[in-house]
Amino acid sequence: MFDKILIANRGEIACRIIRTARRLGIRTVAVYSDADAQALHVSLADEALRIGPAPARESYLRPELILEAARRSGAGAIHPGYGFLSENAEFAEACAEAGLIFIGPPAGAIRAMGSKSAAKQIMEAAAVPLVPGYHGEQQDPELLARAAAGIGYPVLIKASAGGGGKGMRVVGEAAAFDDALVAAKREALSGFGDDRVLLEKYLTRPRHVEIQVFADSLGNVVHLFERDCSIQRRHQKVLEEAPAPGMPEELRRSMGAAAVAVARAIGYVGAGTVEFLLDQDGSFYFMEMNTRLQVEHPVTEMITGQDLVEWQFRVAAGEPLPLGQEQLTISGHAIEARIYAEDPQRDFLPSIGILGHLRTPQENAHVRIDTGVRAGDEVSIHYDPMIAKLIVWDTDRTGALRRLATALAEYQVVGVTTNVAFLATLAGHPAFAAGDLDTGFIERHRTALFPRISPATDQVLALACLDVLLRRTREAQQAAAASPDPWSPWHLTSGWRMNVDNHHVLVFRDNGTDISIIAHYRPSGYLLELPGGEQMASGSLDHNGDILADLNGARCRATVVRHNDDLVIVIQGRSHRLTLHDPLAHVGEQEDQGGRLTAPMPGKIVAVLVEPGARVAKGTPLVILEAMKMEHTIAAPRDGLVSEIHFSVGAVVNEGAELLAFAADGEQTP
Ligand code: ADP
């Protein structure tokens, strides 16, 4: 076993690897970019070395910097985590040349699976079932169109070098093929520097079921069962679980055997995942193999009781697999939810900022949290905006779902927009509970999953009022205690004044609308005049600053996080933002006329889709911005006229930069 390893990664996966290394008595070396100097993975590791500036291509993606750090630290092996250099065959080779052990598969196996088409040819030879399709070298558009017709529509065009759902196009009919091919090739070229594509029959309601495999250097190969990752948005996984709901034992055995055959066909060593599409009729087809640890590996660990990172260390050190196939069993059910700083209401646009308030559920045998951030850390534009993985386990799926709902309700993040409430809605959907999963789930249940932003409820408003009033009372009490005349009636905090119904008017701005609430002081609390009627409210603040409230006799607990005039009321995992509004301070302020269209985050302009002077309908895509490895479309907010475009393709823009001048119909050009 190794004495010291270097982890060529950051965030939650670096922290997760360090945890196992520490348990096994292996010393760890972290590497970090300038953006990560204070990051959690740096403080957890035994040593840490700076490798470069914030952008990943100048730090975490630079093999020579990582190798130099390994040399300086004296580490004997490198764990690449996932992403970054984990599937880079040249890096695996460079490690070997430098006398370091790469904790991953042999370079040849990475290469074999690096191209989707080459991988499919190998699989065909190994008699592993493939989706009917074309994955040859010939790329002539006419030949491809003929191949598509032969496969039968709908057809999926995929970038051979693709990943992360990029460069994929579904084509419904022959007439649309040529245009879709051009678009897919353009995206493939810009995303992967390679415009080759392959064609596949597009399955209409498949499940994504993948098999975890493990092989050692002595020729042993096992699988650690399946994970169902069907709940996806934009072809990216959102919820993952193991085992797959309703999986027949026979199918599990045959998919497991197919995955083991895939690993054997390429001389695999280490942890890998073979991804399949599972069709409604029980047929399954090889999609691709990921030659690394997956983000969702914890669900497999929870149901098998194994530590896959420990397995990786042992195999890389030349030891045999810790267990044989017959010794591996499934116990209970695990679900992982990926908690992201992103806005589901805005097509999952990443949200960047400081995690001003972060409170997580308690970890125990049923709840595991893999994270790389703490309160006060920043979600920056430089890396993936994942905040944490929340993994729950119970003896069966119903129990696991209940654990998930409870843990999500306890997850509090303020400072960035998150998908926590979306995950809760998703996990609580009856079709999800019924295990009726397929990759189109989110799209199909769109209306139920993306409710319109609803106005603050009376409960939320009452909690906001209580928070304001209780804090004022506390401040007044503190001021009185500090004053030379603490018993002066002017310091009375009960709101009592002789002969008047003493009251207070609080104005909150809720998503653009002002709501006035009158709070009358009463000996037992406050009588609030809320939009839905009167409520008696009383309560106290506990040592965490949480409110313990009594609203018309109903008790509840909530957290109210303050940032200047903003109040974020978090109750049962749902957050609602209100602004405490002083009407006098904003007299004369104009509503935003929507005359400027600005960059929602820093990024690069990758396409300008309209000409200056163009008249466009509401929703017309105008500019495409690439930020955080994803494309974001800026669309016309209303019908109107694009009078000017301020940037051209390739320009790098700051957050808030005005991209173009737009005049909605009936308005003057700004
Ligand atoms: P990437 O490498 O870009 O993630 P994959 O080939 O792994 O691409 O496919 C990603 C997702 O796209 C799958 O999980 C599935 O939801 C969908 N998908 C891929 N191929 C097909 C197909 N032939 N029919 C239907 N959906 C597909």
Give descriptors for this structure:
binds adenosine-5'-diphosphate, alpha+beta, D-amino Acid Aminotransferase, Chain A, domain 1, Rossmann fold, 8-stranded antiparallel sheet, 670 residues, 39 strands
What does the model show?
The protein has 6 domains: 4-103, Rossmann fold (3-Layer(aba) Sandwich); 119-131 and 205-331, ATP-grasp fold, B domain (D-amino Acid Aminotransferase, Chain A, domain 1); 132-201, ATP-grasp fold, A domain (Dna Ligase, domain 1, 2-Layer Sandwich), CATH 3.30.1490.20; 332-451, ATP-grasp fold, B domain (D-amino Acid Aminotransferase, Chain A, domain 1), CATH 3.30.470.20; 458-482 and 492-580, Glycoprotein, Type 4 Pilin; 587-664, OB fold (Dihydrolipoamide Acetyltransferase, E2P). The model is unreliable at 584-594 (pLDDT under 50). The strands form 9 sheets. The chain has an 8-stranded antiparallel sheet, with helices on both faces. An 8-stranded antiparallel β-barrel has the order 24-25-26-27-28-29-30-31. Strands 3-2-1-4-5 form a 5-stranded parallel sheet, with helices on both faces. The protein is an alpha+beta fold and 670 residues long. The structure holds adenosine-5'-diphosphate (ADP). The site of adenosine-5'-diphosphate (ADP) has 20 residues, from β7, β9, β13 and β14.
